[in-house]
Amino acid sequence: MTAKERQMDKRLLGTNGLQVSALGFGCMGLSFGYGAATERSDAVALIRGAHDLGVTFFDTAEAYGVENEEVLGEAVAPFRDQVVIATKFGWKDGSPRTGQLDSRPERIRIVADQSLQRLKTDRIDLFYQHRVDPDVPIDEVAGAVRDLIAEGKVKHFGLSEAGAQTIRRAHAVQPVAALQSEYSMFTRDPEAEILPLLEELGIGFVPFSPLGKGFLTGKIDAGTSFPEGDIRNSLPRFQAEARAANHKLAEEIGSLAEAKGVTPAQVALAWLLAQKPWIVPIPGTTKLHRLQENVGGASVELSPDDLQKLAAILAAIPVQGERYSAQGMKMVNR
Ligand SMILES: NC(=O)c1ccc[n+]([C@@H]2O[C@H](COP(=O)([O-])OP(=O)(O)OC[C@H]3O[C@@H](n4cnc5c(N)ncnc54)[C@H](OP(=O)(O)O)[C@@H]3O)[C@@H](O)[C@H]2O)c1
After folding, report:
1. Ligand 1 pocket test target in 23, 28, 55, 292 with most atoms within 8 Å of CB
2. Whole-angstrom distance, CA of residue 87 vs CA of residue 246
3. What pLDDT is attached to residue 3?
4. What residues pair up with 25 in beta bridges, in sequence order?
5. Which of 13, 14, 74, 275 is deepest in the core (most CB within 10 A)?
């Protein structure tokens, strides 16, 4: 592979020089959320494969299990200085399975030290609060991360699924480099209030589940069964009836992709990249051929006509089913 092929456009998150590849790589599915964990050596190879393809931005979290951060740290060790590592704190005892949050400053400090150890690195480039903790004022959370930044353990501060007021308050204490929330043609919640706010404040945006947890690729339909331990088994939007209703959307996106000679996944990623120059999606996959396909999405140009057609498709086919359970919906946008 030539050096040119390895180049991917870069984007800036926030106003303090956090530069990353236009597409990042989400490590979650390597050990959390979508069934059995990927074999460690395969996961390391995949992450290194992503770097070979020009990806310089890797996303993990305490909540994805000890091995997720460990695998990422091992994989990027040979080229650590060339990549940006993002991880997250904020679940009680580090596990979303508790259903409880913990963003007390003392806990944030412990998570930072443990994450540094697991990642085998001396700094976390981007440290997100995974979910807003209603029991800890956001000023205290931002203050705790500000202290870690002053000590050099953390470089940049991020939030995930935070509401507008929380973002403003946090940003006033410690500038927020990036908000990471769900955004894709399958979930457009951030468009009304959050994206204009981020533009106003100069905060970058990292859409998670940019492929709609796989749905926008067209590979999931009413007949698909997910393995045991796959979160999609419990998400309203992935129940059989909703899947059947939503499949029309994936089909229409698929037709547009086919006409352009690209894939639906690539259209889904190119659509996000076309929304704002400070948006950096982080698709996840456990398969090298899909990684290559997804990275190709960074070079797909959607014309104004393509974007208009997609807008018409999205307007005509409203997505059926919430993206999270009732409990999960209570934890977002607050
Ligand atoms: N902040 C948060 O609360 C939060 C929540 C969720 C996720 N995230 C982050 O966002 C990252 C990405 O989100 P995500 O993994 O939920 O969703 P996603 O990237 O939208 O989709 C991943 C799913 O799509 C499949 N897939 C990927 N590329 C494909 C392709 N080209 N063709 C067909 N199927 C494809 C994957 O299966 P295979 O592995 O079989 O390819 C996997 O099941 C995560 O890794 C994580 O880092 C953050």
Report:
1. 28
2. 32
3. 46
4. 58
5. 13
